[in-house]
From TrEMBL:
Domain of life: Bacteria
Annotated Gene3D superfamilies: Homeodomain-like, Tetracycline Repressor, domain 2
InterPro entries: DNA-bd_HTH_TetR-type_CS (IPR023772), Homeodomain-like_sf (IPR009057), HTH-type_TetR-like_transc_reg (IPR050109), HTH_TetR (IPR001647), Tet_transcr_reg_TetR-rel_C_sf (IPR036271), Tscrpt_reg_YcdC_C (IPR013573)
Gene Ontology BP annotations: negative regulation of DNA-templated transcription
Domain HTH tetR-type: 14-74
Keyword annotations of the record: DNA-binding
Annotation: DNA-binding region: 37-56
Record-level Gene Ontology MF annotations: DNA-binding transcription factor activity; transcription cis-regulatory region binding
Signal peptide as annotated in the record: none
Identification of the protein by name: Transcriptional regulator, TetR family
Annotated source species: Paracoccus homiensis
Length: 205
């Protein structure tokens, strides 16, 4: 089936592909790309190994499909920034969305971080193309808002990098965060308040 990418999929086929990708997410986020096997993916998906190979030709193909879907999800909040909105509100909404994604999709965040740390062999073209273009569009917008006096002036690229690192840290280093805070803390609620204060003070005119 993987040899016919243009062939329309039935509803059941689409469901099975998603089941396999969810099983792969479990296997890859637990064992890494090199440590994960098709047998582990099949077991996590609750399907047979031949069934997995019916939908995907290799572990590499599964990994590529999974990461491409994750990147689409990861970029959605950046795409959603409204050029006609109130600048500070738009940035703070983006920060909140990224933090919520770390809370709701910690395995996905760790898998994406792991891929980037490996040199992003499956994402190089996307990162240097689509992601870079989207970031540059956002940087242009941020600079316009700063030139108009609607945001305090900071370096826009590093503003975006800081948002990524400050929000994804809570997923990528979840065990460390929980160990340091101890019981009785909601790290995402506390982080949301802290990040709102920090970026509001940094960017408010």
């Amino acid at each position: 089936m993987s040899d016919n990418p243009d062939q329309p999929l039935t509803r059941i086929q689409r469901q099975n592909r998603q089941i396999i990708l969810q099983g792969a997410l479990t296997a890859f986020s637990t064992n890494g790309f090199r440590g994960a096997t098709i047998d582990q993916i099949a077991e996590a998906a609750g399907l047979s190994k031949p069934n997995v190979f019916y939908y995907f030709g290799s572990k590499d193909e599964i990994h590529r499909n999974l990461l491409t879907g994750l990147l689409d999800m990861w970029l959605a909040p950046l795409v959603a920034i409204n050029p006609d909105g109130q600048p500070l509100d738009e940035v703070l909404t983006y920060v909140r969305a990224k933090l919520d994604m770390s809370r709701d999709y910690p395995r996905e965040s760790r898998l994406f971080a792991y891929e980037v740390m490996r040199g992003a062999p499956h994402l190089t073209e996307i990162l240097s193309g689509r992601l870079r273009n989207l970031v540059e569009d956002t940087v242009t917008l941020l600079r316009r808002w700063m030139d108009e006096g609607r945001l305090a002036r900071v370096e826009p690229h590093h503003l975006i990098f800081s948002i990524w690192s400050m929000t994804q840290h809570y997923a990528d280093f979840e065990v460390q965060v929980q160990a340091v805070l101890g019981p009785g803390h909601d790290p995402y609620a506390e982080a949301g308040e802290f990040l709102d204060q920090m970026y509001r003070r940094m960017l408010a005119v």
